[in-house]
Amino acid sequence: MVDPIGAGLIAIASAIAVGATGIGAALGEQMIGSAAVGVMAEDEGFFGRGLVMTVIPESIVIFGLVVALILLFVTLPSLG
Amino acid sequence: MFEPQPMTKVIIVGSKDYMNIAIDAMFKHNVIHITDFVDEDEDFKIGKPHESITKLSERAVTLRSLASYLSIKGKEDISKKYPEGAIIDAIEEKTEQLDVEVTQVTDKISEIDSKIKDINDKKRLLAPLKSFELPLELYTGYQSLAVFFGTLKGSPNISDITNDYELETAPYGRGLTISLFVPRKFEDEVLKRLQEQGYSTLPLPKMEGVPKDILVNLEPQLVGLQSEKQKREEDLADLRKKHIEYILASDEYLSVETQKAEAPLRFATTKNSFIVEGWIPTKDLGLIQSDLDGATNGHVIVDVDSSEAVDVEKVPVALKNPLPAKPLEVLVRAFSIPKYNEIDPTKLMVFMYPALFGLMLGDLGYGLLVIALGLLVSRLIKSQGMRDLAIIGVYAGIFSVIFGFIFNEFFGVEAFGHRGLITSVEYTAAPRLENVFNLLLITFIIGLLMLTLAYVLGFVNEFRQHGLKHAIYTKVSWLCMLWGGAIAVTLVLPALSSGSGIQLSLGLIAGLVVLVVGFILMIMGEGAIGLTEVPTLLSNVLSYSRLLSIGVSSLGIALAVNKLSDALFFSKGGIFVIFGVILLIVGHAINTALGILDSGLQALRLHYVEFFTKFYRGGGIKYVPFGFERKYTEEK
User: Among partner residues A51, A56, A65, which is closest to B549 by beta-carbon distance?
Assistant: First the structure.
């Protein structure tokens, strides 16, 4: 049986990993996205590259998600 | 195999007398990409458009205004093609006649519209008055009486000024409409009082009679006008039905003729001859040569230009892919068109893009839904871009189904095996939630392999464009760092996490040596500043972990929907089952939409950001042949 407080702390840790990285990614995407839309107003052909640049900060939240998944599905079971 | 269509540079030269025949012949084949002539000098001038251009444009304007009156958009599907000969003979007369017919109807409609507007204006003016019994003409023309007619917030209180007044009120909006008659001598005082109560004047309609009666009479007039307008609109619809084929066809005919007439603007001309520079797909060269020769009796020559070293930057690029791979060109074009001597990654994406998508979505149910949606959209929607995307969706759906089998998922429920839907089938599946760590390792391996492929392709591109030395410095260096780093990390990490200390094995030494060779090659090629880029290699590989995390989050939402509908509704039974079904449908619909959007974008990103940047620059010129895809007309 996993220590309930330990399990809770792991759950909170994974929530922070996803939540905080989500905020970070959102801040980044907000800036890049508005700039990309601005460029697209000038040149429609920029759509592909604009899309790519906009999703670049998304990596951060993906890393956060991976950390959370490892905490929940690898670390947590290994404790019990 | 990964090259675009081979192109040949041609110079077409001939006597000006044969220019129009040559233009017709070139236009018909729709294969020559003309390079516009721009550098005018004393001998060579830009050609002049054919004199018919003014007339053609005038007719095009008339025709397009007709089309817009008849709401013909130019995208309609017409089964039968119009013979071009019939248009050439009749276009002048027929367009004029049609113009008269349509204008008659549209003029009538705008006349009716203005009458309707008139009546509506009257109705609006009379609305505040409708409960007043006094005929309108009696509100004006008094010498000893002042008349106030307007709106007020509350009931006017002027009894302390005079009791000699006549007042009518009616509720209007939040306040009142009033008509107030007072002796002229109190006018100023009363006005002041009214203004304190928020009085504002209303315009008095210049009509005669009791407002209520006028309103009653207006109504049948309005109904009559509206039904007449409807009749006229039906006339217009009839005209549209009768003439749509002709209008679409002659509009197309005019666009074709205009393009032909304007073509000399792209040519170089001397006093007696014209010269066209351009590119032809090599396979069509013979055809064009013999056809132009035949049509002009040998007066126009198509010559292959092999005199100077061809600048690959200027060669137009027509992608060459087999039919099943064609839809993926949309994704490549959205990034950038490849240069002429660059690898076209479309064929690779046919497998890689749907596979990455399927790995993320990885659910039998969602996969089947995506396939169905893709088929539906490709049937219903005419836009080529959307159709291409829909077909990519079908490919992606097929891979989602395949991975759905592997992960044993059906709308988040286990499809087969233990406690699944179909318990009779038992096979070794890899449910995602129980294999997070292994799947994570697999995504890194996929990342390693894709990046390796990218550097190999990059090597080929660099070798072609800048030679072997450059290719080794810029691509082999990264490849060494990638694999050296990967081997080193794989051997060091388990030891670090278990705390057992690092053992210097043969594999580790080999990995480190490869890594160092990579560093050295890169420093030789790009200088020490290149080292700052090295960490991106790590983040590139780690980036592939999204293949797992996007999939698991989509699975998480599916699980949540299933559990919620069970706990909230299905467990209660009875009428609640209906709510449960609704929740299931809505929840899974939202998750499907999210799954398509997220998996689609992230798979695209893994291609654009992680994969393409290693070998693909793009920036090629799009091949735009001189000609026209006829939709509504048939050549004579």
Answer: A65
